[in-house]
Specification:
Layout: E1 2-4, H1 7-11, H2 20-37, E2 42-46, H3 47-54, H4 59-66, E3 72-77, H5 81-84, H6 88-98, E4 106-108
Parallel strand pairs: 1-2, 2-3
Antiparallel strand pairs: 3-4
Amino acid sequence: MKIYLDLCCFNRPYDDQSQLRIRIETEAKIAIQQKIKDAECELLWSSILDFECSKNPFEEHRVAILNWRDLACDFIFHPKVKTTGFSRLALAAIMRFLNGGEHGLQARKPYGFSN
């Protein structure tokens, strides 16, 4: 199964864990990431994640999140992200891609992917 995690998912462990909902979401996100590490699921990465993550003011968080890019099986490139940033249209295109519909996106191996 291929999984796409948006930046909110990657940032969830850095949120206030004193709230039950946030703690449960963090545990779910960590469980999904373990399945990715164990090759039970495949991670998709996108130019949207690159763009949004580049805006993260916390360097330690930015680096930790970008390290997940190396585990991605495919990279989804949306041509408008580099010029206009994240948009609802880009997210809608990713959802159509994941559901096998017409989307106008290109899937390719992540940068530096050796396989």
